[in-house]
Amino acid sequence: MIRVLICLLILCLGNSSFAQETYKITYHYFRDGAMIKQDPIVVFATRGKSIVTRESQVSGQPRYPLEVSSYDYTKDLVYRISYLSDSKMISTVDSNTLKKYKYEDEGQGKEILKHKTKKAVTSVNSNKIELLYTDELKINAAPNDLGQTMGLVLEYRRNGNSGLVAASIEKLKSWPKDLPQINESNLLDELSYRDVLWKSKFIQIPIFQDAQICFQPGIKSDSILRFAEGTVIMKKVKVPSVENGAQAFIQLIEKSNGDAYDRTGSVFLISEDQKTTFLDGMKNGMETLPAYIDSAGTKYPGMVRTDGFSPVLELMRFFTPFGVSHFNDRLKLKGKTWQDSVIYRQDVSEFLSVMAGKEIYIGTYIGNYDKGGHKVSLELTIHPGGSNYADGMKILPLFNTTNVMEMGGQTYPTMFAFEKGLELKFNVPNDIKGAKLRYITTGHGGWGNGDEFVPKPNRIFLDGTLKTQFTPWRLDCGSYRLYNPVSGNFDDGLSSSDLSRSNWCPGTITNPVFIELGDLAAGEHTIRIQIPQGPKEGESSSFWNVSGALVYQ
């Protein structure tokens, strides 16, 4: 009997010792059969718990933000800990993750690191996930949330060609003392935690928040600079220096604050590459700026580049819808729920060379004649990355006929009524390889026969040679009906916002096109934009808002 008790005690002690065994598992990324050089995943696991972190955190060289997940299998809880900097950490608890995934058993898998495995599959957001796991070490662990309750996951494969595989399993003497500890009193709710973590990954530069753009002669300024009777607002912001490969986005949220109509809008940047800037004209009067003169002698101040002056750089051209938000209760239609705002978001990475590490003026214009006008929120975000289409790109403003100072001395651009169209000369100081024209174009004016509703070709000439010809036209305007609650409805069942237009729709962005100009030798060049603008109809004139900037490496 005593011998039996001793044997049982030895057996229990042996199991207890085994239960406390701790392992360090290192996982490497792979794609299409090849390993990827990326910060490896490191997992520490023992009976009842595991922690998923990164090699950079273990080695004392973390790359922020860094998220660590701690799994408590006895309580079915997952703690998330994110290091945002050397001195800031946030955390939360998730009670759902370990229960939400369902797996199908597919029998035996291949051997990994001398351990036999079993195969299980699941689906996450339409992606097929294959897991190879072992129960030989009597622990639960995985490089991410999947398979955490099945055993030790040794390979995670996504859609058959990419994933994570265990590169080493190291047995430790004890649980490392310097691993993250949970402070239950400092836990955020999961939504707040995710929001803080997401925003820590990029630079946010708020510019306007619910700012009013309206027509109010004599409107007084607050912290925002206001021009043209309130139809233009502007602010000076500081943009930090960024590493190569960063991407920049501008985001505008717009709501009607009383204006029911579709209006031209523009987010622009004051170019400061020459002695005289557009801001000088905004402050001192547009008549103080150099003017383009068309064949009829009409003057257009501040629209083209000259020796000593640069027009504004247009970051984004947008169009307000018919009364979104303010007029949502005016018309109720079965099966239609009006949107409460419009969000316009666009990649503007090509402008980083004139923004990063500088204090810049960014403005927003909405042409309108309403005292309430519109409310806008604007922010610039910059995101670190490895590469993007605009990496190393430089930009030079050439022309912008969008009359953002409409209420301050800029007339509508009707110079395209003449064969010459818009023509200007510019200089480049050095030879340029592979130059492009960043070009935005929209046609306006008239009614049924106006250029807003009649397709017109745009022709771009450089030094007398036709570089491209295309007809800007939008056929998808009906897609944005739910942003236009008070768009006019016609007897044929269409709404005004449905109608196709010259490269714009109510409630949308007009994207720039990049036109190949080729190699440019140092010195003077001539660019010409020719559009067959329609004739005047009574008091209504057609016109074209075009902006162009030279982009090059």
Automatic annotation (TrEMBL):
Residues 1-19 form the signal peptide. InterPro entries: Cu2_ascorb_mOase-like_C, PHM/PNGase_F_dom_sf, PngaseF_C, PngaseF_N, PngaseF_N_sf. Residues 204-382 form the Peptide-N-glycosidase F N-terminal domain. Keywords: Disulfide bond, Signal. The keyword Signal applies. The keyword Disulfide bond applies. This is PNGase F N-terminal domain-containing protein.
